[in-house]
Design a protein that fits this description.
The chain is mostly beta strands. The protein is 3% helix and 39% strand. The radius of gyration is 25 Å and the shape is elongated.
């Protein structure tokens, strides 16, 4: 049985140093599918129905459909008077922009109608898939909770695995470097760095609570990933590096 599949289109644009400016931009459209993204413990099953595992073949937990990463570096030009040249020599500004779509999640039911251990997926009500338009989504209701219900007794829910997506990420990092040469005959120098991560302090919201019938279903209650130091609120750091 095939366990996973990944297809992608990758585009890259690059400008090498010209007049002090260089940049790189990469865009990836991709689609990852699998049966179970987490490591499976032997003799256990992560599948909704162990006798019909294809019901779980869907978007992988780590599937990010669109991703754009752009970075730029600019070395301030040296021109003008000698005093001005000394003031601006060695300055460098840098920026990195990350933009990518949200991770998929599965809508579950708080009521387990299967009479077995584990959680049950929800069932659809009507013809909609529960997704809301960008203008209708909010932190209080990211998806249409009313589009789902508990399955019938001893029935599997008909909602597929990872059918909806959480919020995307837009993060801009910015830094300023200043290099001080230690002498004129070698490359040894001291660098003072000021770096700001997520400089706009844009909230990076996580996926909503996705168990219908439970308190707060459909609402987003957390942001960022503090344990991995990713998608954080604005952080600023200062550093000094010695290059020998």
């Amino acid at each position: 049985m095939e366990t996973s599949r990944y297809n992608a289109l990758q585009l890259t644009a690059e400008q090498r140093v010209a007049h002090g400016l260089s940049f790189n931009a990469s865009y990836t459209w991709s689609h990852a599918l699998d049966y179970a993204s987490a490591n499976v413990v032997p003799d256990t099953t992560p599948f909704m129905d162990a006798y019909n595992r294809r019901l779980d073949y869907a978007n992988a937990d780590f599937d990010i459909r669109h991703r754009l990463v752009a970075s730029a570096t600019y070395l301030l030009p040296i021109k003008g008077s000698r005093i001005l040249n000394h003031a601006i020599r060695g300055w460098q500004v840098n920026g990195i922009l990350n933009m990518y779509t949200g991770l998929p999640f599965t809508v579950l039911s708080a009521t387990n109608t299967l009479n077995i251990a584990g959680r049950s997926r929800a069932s659809y009500v009507g013809n909609g898939d529960g997704a809301l338009s960008a203008g209708a989504r909010s932190l209080q209701q990211w998806f249409d909770v009313s589009a789902f219900s508990a399955p019938a007794i001893l029935h599997f829910g008909d909602v597929g695995r990872n059918t909806l997506c959480g919020p995307g990420t837009i993060q801009l990092d910015f830094s300023v470097f200043k290099n001080f040469a230690l002498n004129r005959v070698s490359a040894r120098h001291v660098q003072i760095r000021a770096e700001a991560f997520n400089i706009t302090n844009r909230p990076q919201f996580n996926s909503p609570l996705s168990t219908t019938g439970a308190p707060g279903a459909g609402a987003i209650t957390s942001a960022g990933s503090p344990n991995t130091f990713q998608r954080m609120s604005r952080e600023v750091q200062l550093a000094i590096k010695l290059y020998l």
